[in-house]
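Below is the data:
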Amino acid sequence: MKIFAEDVEPTKEEILQQRMSYYLRYNDYIVPWYYIAAIDQYERNIQDVRNDIPKREGIVSIQFSDEFWSGALNPQVNETSPIAINHFGGLGLDGNGDGLANIKDDADVLFSMVSYLSKYGLSKDDYKLALWDYYKNETVINQIVTIAILFEKFGTIDLDAHTFPIELGYQYSYGGTWGANRGWGGRRIHEGTDIFADNSTPVLSASYGVVEVIGWNQFGGWRIGIRDNHNSYHYYAHLARFQEDLKVGDIVEPGQVIGYVGSTGYGKEGTSGKFSPHLHYGIYKFNGKTELAFDPYPFLVKWEKEAKQAKRKKVKYKY
């Protein structure tokens, strides 16, 4: 099935529109579109950061094993006959009515995933059970469920917007502090960027996400952990306090106030003032196996620039 002209590079908007049209095609087939979209997004996320997983070509990123698709005992690993696949207990299906169950066809892949999920039932618990039987990994399940929650809440898969985590208009400074030595609590490296600002400066969510952790730890003091739709965990630490009523499970969006700069941490609950007020901002990426920290500084520079441009544009149009 041709989606775009061969000599024309599709825009991001065109790709998202085509992807969404696939999801909505099965929206009335028992399984809500955001469940399917969440699995597809998760698969795309891990393919972007794993060298041992090939990137699937096409609009959809879901990849099935040959065993799942063709059947464990099928001698033809690239089987496309629905009859033969069914005979050997495979789950690959014909999703576009061309008489073939082609693992390289986006419509067939999505229809097969929808069919698999629908066998478990309609509830969120049924969805989690289906994911468990498929992935056998609780962390994977939690990540996919988070993505589904975000897609359902905002009604779109276009949730790539980010912003700088300190509200513009306040005084702040930061630099590349990734990998610097830290001695308190044992030798370790600094996994993030410190953004220095006055006490009680508003801290913003840099992304769309779901609050996964909120509370105290001895290193980060009052801290918040937010998981987004790209398998990233955003860590905001040393806060003076949280935004009122913010709690685990809340859905946030870029620019939303989540807390305020402080100097908490490095001790028992309530310890404060052992260092200058600042926001410690870190990002951890889950690759399907483990969660690893990476340097957020280049992203902060980019988001700061974009936030300033957006602010200037807003002021320009206001007057």
DSSP finds eight helices and twelve strands in the chain.
